Amino acid sequence: MGDSEGSHLNSPLLQKLADGGYLSIWNDYGLYGIVGAVILGLSIPLLLSGTIMGKKKGKQRGVQVEVGGEVGYAMRNRKSTELVEVPWEGATTMAALFEQSCKKHARGRFLGSRKLINKEVITGSGGRKFEMLHLGEYEWETYGETFDRACNFASGLVKLGHVKDSRAAIFSETRAEWLLAFQGCFRQNITIVTIYASLGEDALIHSLNETQVSTLICDFKQLKKLAALSSSLETIKHVIYFEEDETTIDSGISSNMSNWTVSSFLEVEKLGKESPIHPRLPSKTDIAVIMYTSGSAGLPKGVLMTHGNIVSTAAAVMTVIPRLGINDVYLAYLPLAHVFELAAETVMLSAGCAIGYGSAMTLTDSSNKIKKGTQGDASVLKPTLMAAVPAILDRVRDGVLKKVNEKGGAAKKLFNLGYKRRLAAIEGSWLGAWGLEKFLWDVIVFKKIHSILGGRIRGMLCGGAPLSRDTQRFINICVGAPIGQGYGLTETCAGAAFSEWDDTTVGRVGPPLPCCYIKLISWEEGGYLTSDKPMPRGEVVVGGFSITLGYFKNEAKTNEVYKVDENGMRWFYTGDIGMFHPDGCLEIIDRKKDIVKLQHGEYISLGKVEAALMSSNYVENIMVHANPFHSYCVALVVPSHQALEKWAQEAGIGYKNFPDLCQKDEALAEIKQSLSKVSKTAKLDKLEIPAKIKLLPDPWTPESGLVTAALKLKREQLKSKFKEELEKLYG
């Protein structure tokens, strides 16, 4: 942003104060502009001196270390010379951690859920029906009550007939009962198979049959899907469903499930409470979870996680989040079948935090399923901590900018001024980032934006996919709290790297977590070497306590990407390309599978190009495709309905519906021009800019099987579905 002092003096609002006084500011910015100018005018000397004095010396966050295994450039977290394995002595398994935390925080709030007050179905344009919900306040259960319920459920499973050493699966949206069932199973050392609620039928059948699941735990709406697949599910004996308000199992569903014992969650709890069974607790090396990845290609793979793997990640993350404890409230809405959310909730229960459950469709007051005039989950819960995936943060950013643009005039100018000042402060000094000026602009401009997520957020973590620098900084400023990126995979039990809260940089994923080492190994074919200057580059390899055992019934794939060194440490080869900064922080810069060689030998990184093109306001989603027999790349683009229709209206383009608009040559030309513009900003090479594009009107969702639950592209499925469109682009 240039010189810090100059950035203060170049403020347009302050320039107006110098040139034309308060009348000029009133005309352009209104009352808030006057207030802002007065406050800033009074505080400029302090802010200028604070900016200079507040400059923070670069902090060393990672330390180079010598470790075994393949030669490479390895780092550890600066905080500890020994890797962290447990959060406290004795908490070596998920069962032990849960029991000890529940007893320590017995009277504290733990699991919160909202009751449905009423529901109405409205019909939108095109005849589509939408469900709108009015939800009540959060109702809470304490840690002590939750532990008792988990014990009852565990006993109920045994009384129901669940056989020792057979597996149970959870197939449900995220909710309090998901975690209850999860912890209950561990009381009897039952291995849990986790399955995304959005998983397609083939993948669901594959996952359940491959693991020979005997007990399936699901939410009520999955019963119909399961009933239709009952003849294909070979080993299921018991189905336990989470109750919903005013729902009953119809006769058609019941007849298809006649070979199963079907019980409600509450019935199993009651059974266990009446006939308690002594627990059969696991060891740290026992398999806790077989987690089926959503998979970007082919059928999903089941990752074998031990109790020790999950506990070590939680222990490591607890050392990174400052002041984590009983005063924190966490908003849970991401899929618990994904390792990111599972690890986050394990951290929260370890620290005695309250966890309030919501959903992506009811998150804010303006979410799709929230009845107008009622409150979304964040407004009611007022969380202090949240996790998010980039797609959700992109939507928050787009929503805020839409509101700002709609208001226009003085409000828009003041927002832009405040954003520019906060950006200059964050990138110029530590004091400017979190000191007096932050407080001033939060009061003047950003307070209403803070309230979108409840107004109390003190920290956010983003994971699951790369977060763009622009969105990271935007949320950082507008939410008024640190937002860091985490990096991990199902195979590392989410434990790899984590941004520290006082790190105001963007685009990086932080130093290694204290539970693991991260090593870069040269990939000569791709031109990434650990000897590269000024920063070493190479394939990211993670080793330590969080590294899982491998893939269920897939020894060949396990041996391909997992290695054990001469010291007995297990390493996972991620396929991601990383770069270490001088302070020990990792930046993910590429992926081996996303790199394609074009006709004349040039390499193109599909992920890098997609990340750059996503910054166009016309792009909802995009897949870049490169063919080795051609000298250029092409792209499939899902346009933003709102942005493209607004442009069409302003440009006077007539169209019948959105699919018709996507066929218009003018729309194609407008989006191509936008992609060209953002390509230049991102400094993409000419061959990286798609020569041809195809506009696709329908969104890519996990339900359609075209993106994962973390909203990452499923390249092979997209290539297969749009084979004809891609062939025409090269024709």
Automatic annotation (TrEMBL):
Gene Ontology MF term list: long-chain fatty acid-CoA ligase activity
Keywords from the named record: Membrane, Transmembrane, Transmembrane helix
Transmembrane segments: 29-52
Membrane in keyword set: yes
One cellular-component annotation, GO: membrane
Keyword match Mitochondrion: no
InterPro entries in the cross-refs: AMP-dep_synth/lig_dom (IPR000873), ANL_N_sf (IPR042099)
PANTHER family with a match to the protein in the record: LONG CHAIN ACYL-COA SYNTHETASE 8 (PTHR43272:SF92), LONG-CHAIN-FATTY-ACID--COA LIGASE (PTHR43272)
Name by which UniProt lists this protein: AMP-dependent synthetase/ligase domain-containing protein
